Amino acid sequence: MGQIERRDFIKKAVVGSIGTILPYGVDNEVFDVKLPPENHDKTQITAGKKKKVIVGGAGISGLSCAYELIKKGHEVIVLDASGRYGGAVLSVHDGLADGLYADFGAENFTRPGYKNYWKYIEEFNLPVLPYFHRENRLTRIDNIWYTDEMQKEKYEQRIKQLGGFNKSESRYLESNPSSNLEMLYLKPYFDKFSDEYQPFGIGYDHLEKVPVSEIYKKGGASNAASSILGGNNTSALYAIWQAYIRHKRGYDDDFELFHIKGGNQRLTNELGSRLGTRIKLGCKILEIKNGETGVTVKYREFGKEKEISADYLACCLRTTALRTIKITPQLPDEKIFIFDNLAYDQTTRIVFQARSKFWLKDNTTINLTFNHPALRTIWEVADEVDTKRVSLMAKAPGGTNPLRTLEAFRELYPGNRSNIDIEQVLVKDWSADEFVNGCERHGFGGLGELSKFWPHIMTPHGRIHFGGAHTDNRSWGMEAATNSANRVALEIDQA
């Protein structure tokens, strides 16, 4: 590929909204939203009082929450500051040739797991394909490329050097993957759990400030297992709770990866089409008044301030947005702490379009893990599209220059570099996104941290109910988002 000018080389996948400066005024609005067409499942409509609900945020959580609410017979309006709905669920087609596409956000989902997400897949009859980006992988470690088998050998050598596993660990690993070794020591604690959303009050509260490494030691873990599992800085309560959730959802067995043919944004598009003009885009929430009998939201639309009132607010906004919104009366201190301290992964996703599957000339794979500051992983996407061209997805830390990512790829590619025929680059830096700053939220597994965040992160306050992927018990993207959405819809319906 010849030299390309920077302005032509880096394409922006998302068009930012255009700010408009207009005189400020205040309008008062009332709901005039009609119920959805009579093609919804009437069995889900409740017989209780119809409620007026404002949904803050039109990401997948806000969309699915609003959709569940209208199916239950409630009046809904959705406000989102962006000019598009879908939030972090973003599929890109523009800028790619021959029908190729890629998912800049929400790249895959699993089975088992994603129960509420699969509900929508089946209801909307969306075509699903297996996702193979973790298969036949090469990983670069200390400047050497390792196959999965070579990594397994390296792992086994390390175990031997550490003295080997004990008899109970060896027996367990005969029928379980090594990645699930922690379950041997954590499963005995599962019996006391009855609700995957409640880790407290079941007799383990004291374990919040005990490192999980002590649980392994107490269970008789070998030196090898203790070294592999670590956990000196991870709360035992948090580790046990998260392991229980994975176990309940089937993640401690083998699971498969999938994606929606044509891009995962097809699901949010389906939700959005059913909500129609109930979604008001370009409407930034400025203030929330949490009253005893209702909630009032002030927002800005084309520079003009407006107000709307409802019975409840389903707040599916990220904490990064909530920090900028005035809420009266002030929320409890534990909520403010969450807004100020919750952190999100910062990732740049880069799509390379190539003229061919050039790596096949080198008899190698394109599922590569680089462990490089400018390039973590790369793999092929949209491989079902009938074209000789290919789209490749790369991950890098937030703020990474895509030109540097391409340089790293060329430098470290395990085949003949002259075969690389990349012709196009698209980039989405989530750390720089005005509306969806960052990706999945960080956990709160440090010693003594869990009670600072949980369950306050999801607890309603007055007429405000809190949703979004960051409010679920396990932050797995679209699974967490749809879980929280269904929870909030049920809370408001039953309020």
From TrEMBL:
It comes from the Bacteria. PANTHER family: FLAVIN MONOAMINE OXIDASE (PTHR10742), LYSINE-SPECIFIC HISTONE DEMETHYLASE 2 (PTHR10742:SF410). Residues 60-491 form the Amine oxidase domain. InterPro entries: Amino_oxidase (IPR002937), FAD/NAD-bd_sf (IPR036188), Flavin_monoamine_oxidase (IPR050281). Pfam families: Amino_oxidase. Pathway: Plant hormone metabolism; auxin biosynthesis. Keywords: Auxin biosynthesis. This is Tryptophan 2-monooxygenase. Belongs to the tryptophan 2-monooxygenase family. Gene3D superfamilies: FAD/NAD(P)-binding domain. Signal peptide: none annotated. It is an enzyme of class 1 (oxidoreductase). It catalyses: L-tryptophan + O2 = indole-3-acetamide + CO2 + H2O. One of its GO terms (molecular function) is tryptophan 2-monooxygenase activity. Its EC number is 1.13.12.3. It comes from Christiangramia crocea. GO terms for biological process: auxin biosynthetic process.
